[in-house]
Amino acid sequence: MDNIYFLMLIALAILAVADLVVGVSNDAVNFLNSAIGSKAISFKTIMIVASFGIAAGALFSSGMMEVARKGIFNPGEFYFDEIMFIFMAVMITDILLLDFFNTLGMPTSTTVSIVFELLGAAVAMSLIKIGADNGSFTDVVNYINNDKAIQIIFGILLSVVVAFSIGALVQWVSRLLLSYNFEKKPTWVGALFGGFALSSITYFILMKGIGGTSFAGESFDIIGDITIKEFLETKVVVLVLINFLIWSVLSFILMKFAKTNIYKLIIGVGTFALALAFAGNDLVNFIGVPIAAWQSYEAWMASGVAASEFSMGILAKKVPTPTLLLFIAGMVMVLTLWFSSKAKSVVKTSLDLSSQEDTKERFQPNFLSRGLVRLAIAISESLTYILPKSWQTKIDKQFEKPVIALTKNKVHELPAFDMVRAAVNLMVAGILISIATSYKLPLSTTYVTFMVAMGTSLADRAWGAESAVYRVAGVLNVIGGWFGTAIIAFIASGTILALISFGKGAAIAVLLLLAILLLARNYISHNKKAKELRAEDSLNRAESSSIQGVIIESAENISNVLKRTNKIYTNSINGLAKQDVNLLKKNKKQGEKLSNEIDDLRDHIFYFIKNLDENSIGASNFYINALGYLTDIAQSLEYIGKVSHKHVNNNHKKLKYNQIKELKQIDLKLEEILNQTQAAFTNQSFEQIGLVLNQKEELFAMVSDKIQTQIARTRTEESSPKNTTLYFSLLLETKDLITSTMNLLQQYHNEHDSTIKPATIEQPKKS
């Protein structure tokens, strides 16, 4: 029986590595968002700076390991075997939970998950013990570190409000002082801002870094014969003022003589500080439990007492974590940051929601987001009556964005926000997380970085009239996911603990196998989606300034649409013939995806028209009409895919043989025409379109004939209303699909002139 605990220890070590990889891939990109969003420094530089920050933070995170040992429960109330079951339940749950949220594509917090997993498992084990002893279930409070647990939970929840509020306040003041023309401000203004930002960040780097080292407890005469840690904690004002003076002077010198962009320096130092704080704060989420299990195992082995009788009061004592383990964990985090495909595909949620520019909104508005926006508008309008108009004018002037000439679709390459907001994001988030870490309070880095970014976005007027309801809905969705994390973590951890407690080794083996299978599935699924995304025919925005230019440029788009149209329509007919619900489900998604891509092109119309000169208005008319026809094609395909899947998914009667045969005849003829058309666009042989247009009447006649046949069939032999409805729907929508396709081809055929050289918008020279 004793061997089971050694095997559990090995399993926990493996789970720790897996948790590091999964957790960092999902979570670490949060501290990269500000640097990446501002595009102040290159991605490679950002990664190097972040790597050093993670490595440093990992080495100084020993103190936070106390949370896993005694932060949530009273270890003295449990025996060794119970503690090991708790730790195993927590780690398995963490793996499964992160995998679950990664599969859904929802952001989560590793801090919240580990805290509520520990709480859920400890409560479940307490209830089992109480039930076995016929005690009162109210005694569960004796097993839980109530004060610390409440402090941690309160700190996590408070971080949402505090981070948002402070982020908004600091950003509003910063923008009021610096405006968007911050680079044109006098040197001393940038120097003072740099002094304030860098002194704050530097102090907390020192506080976090030195506070976690072995010599933090040493005292020196030069600092008043007190320990270094005490000096840092008690002499805050003095240290910050000295730092402020040094950094302000240094910033002035760098800006004046070295022509250094101080905001880029702040972003670099801030990224390092936030990465350091992330590692120092979140490393416990990944390895705290396995290390506590290892230390428990060592104490139990040395005792010689039975596992079910050895009290774990030893965990209440402060035990230093070996530096080697911290170093190894830090290296795993760094390697994951560089090589994980998920880490490379940076989470875009916070960037999209905080972007100063127009983006494709990822969330749909709801009654709550609409209500909050209306309330905010009402408050804003009421303030206009309070503040003098002269004040309002001056404030509005500071928030006026500089006009940037729209060049082609280069607007999509603009930074999500400027360097001032990026600096504020990093400064505020780094300070808040570092303070929390110094006081052993595990604030969620996800919560803090996200809510700071949202607060600064609100203050910076990034949420305009056209985006506010979508952005607020997105924030509410993310926060809702966080509450879901806490609830699921608590319930799932308690459930798994119960299974382990009653099933022992067999239950552990099954649950570990399940965790491995889920991780493998998630990895394979992610790689498959990434490959599909790279290989997929995507649509490109038009950038030309003449009709002939748009024709040539959009040829690839049309070819791709026709190729996908052919595939989606054929799969719909084949899926109905075979009653293949999985094929129809995938096909429906492909139709929806094509429709969304065309919607993206329609969203680009504003920028396309803005790029045109007065002599090129005809190109806009052509482009708009072409997009209209593409939209009609996509809507027809989406409808055909939807009704086909619905019919089979609801287990309605299969279409009759003659109906399938007739649909297949149309499909083959349509396939022939679409292949010819695709070849014409692929080879840019637009003269061949005329040959396709000559077949239009034949195709229409075929569809009309099938409609008449079905009418006669319905009156005499058809007995299924659902089949009749589906068949007519398919034929009528096919007719609309053909009409839209032919109208599109007619437009290209009429407007194409091979003798005219396409005009394009002149590309701006790269600086």
Description:
The structure is a single chain. This protein is mainly α and 767 residues long. The chain has 2 domains: 2-361 and 418-523, no CATH class; 547-751, Phosphate transport system protein phou homolog 2, domain 2 (Methane Monooxygenase Hydroxylase, Chain G, domain 1), CATH 1.20.58. 74% of the residues lie in helices and 1% in strands. The protein has a two-stranded antiparallel ribbon with strand order 1-2. Strand 1 and strand 2 (226-227) form a beta hairpin. The radius of gyration is 31 Å and the shape is globular.
The helix count comes to 27
Question: Which runs of at least 5 residues are low in confidence (pLDDT < 50)?
Answer: 406-412, 533-540, 757-767
Q: What portion of residues is helical?
A: over 70%
Instruction: Output the helix-strand order.
Output: HHHHHHHHEEHHHHHHHHHHHHHHHHHHH
Indicate the mean pLDDT: 78
Percent range for β-strand residues? under 5%
* Radius of gyration, whole Å: 31 Å
- End-to-end Cα distance: 70 Å
Write down the overall geometry.
Answer: globular
Major beta sheet, strand line-up:
1-2
| Total E-strand runs | 2
Structural class by sheet pairing and helices: mainly alpha
Report the biggest beta sheet as strand number plus sense, adding barrel if it closes.
2 strands, antiparallel
Number of domains: 2
